[in-house]
Amino acid sequence: MATNMREKGVFMYVSNMEDYGHLVDPDYFPTKYLHNDMWQMKANRKDWENRYISPEYWKALSPTELNEMPCPDVFWFPIFTPRFCKELVELANDNGGWSDGSNNDPRLAGGYENVPTVDIHMNQMDFEQEWLWILRHYVKPLAEKVFLGYDSDARAIMNFIVRYRPTEQSFLRPHHDSSTYTINVGLNRPLIDYEGGGARFIRYNCSVVNTRVGWSLMHPGRLTHYHEGLQTTKGTRYIMVSFVDP
Ligand SMILES: O=C(O)CCC(=O)C(=O)O
Ligand SMILES: [Fe+2]
């Protein structure tokens, strides 16, 4: 109708420019978690995105926006707000079920982890389905933007928070990930919350240090991007890792 009116030269004045708010779905609101808002992405997506998805994410997603590539085929994206990262770390510490970083891991099908970390898996925190939803809705489009021609299923079995400390596990030896691509989200602040840390890609002799809160690295998992976790020398470094499309 607007087009027809415009073609007829009728002057139009749009008056509904005010934001009168939006409806909230009150039917799903869990009360059993430390940060219940984190579970609201499906029922109240708009509020959830405002709280937890970085405003810069939408720009990074744009086809005309160049994304940072700190090492060859290692991309770096703003995805989450600092609040998301803080609440995720608090949920992990509230859960407290950190592994001991040994090769024996009863949580895995074979009971054996070749490259163990001190970590908590998303299913331990009852956040696995939510995390997979996040992968499908926010991570998959970024992967398909930078890895041209790849259709990601955004499947993942290994979704976990790692913690590094000088007094326990402080680094991760060189390895490949069992993924087509891996995401690695910085959850706390270098130089303030911890010192050292970062990821080094051995083939390129290239490291990403001083990673940013809420920003995710994205790199191919096997074959080319043999990598290691650099030593954390002070404090505790937290990251969130997913092995996508294993
Ligand atoms: O410490 C890092 O940033 C690397 C972590 C990593 O490679 C892994 O968890 O598979
Ligand atoms: Fe890795």
TrEMBL record:
Listed InterPro entries: Collagen_mod_GT25 (IPR050757), IPNS-like_FE2OG_OXY (IPR044861), Oxoglu/Fe-dep_dioxygenase_dom (IPR005123), Pro_4_hyd_alph (IPR006620)
SMART domains given in the database record: P4Hc (SM00702)
Gene3D superfamilies associated with the record: q2cbj1_9rhob like domain
Cofactor(s) the protein needs: L-ascorbate
Start and end residues of each Fe2OG dioxygenase domain: 155-246
Protein's organism: Cherax quadricarinatus
GO CC terms, sorted: endoplasmic reticulum
Pfam family, one: 2OG-FeII_Oxy
Superkingdom of this protein's organism: Eukaryota
Alphabetical UniProt keywords: Dioxygenase, Iron, Metal-binding, Oxidoreductase, Signal
PROSITE patterns in UniProt: FE2OG_OXY
GO molecular function annotations of the record: iron ion binding; L-ascorbic acid binding; procollagen-lysine 5-dioxygenase activity
Protein name: Fe2OG dioxygenase domain-containing protein
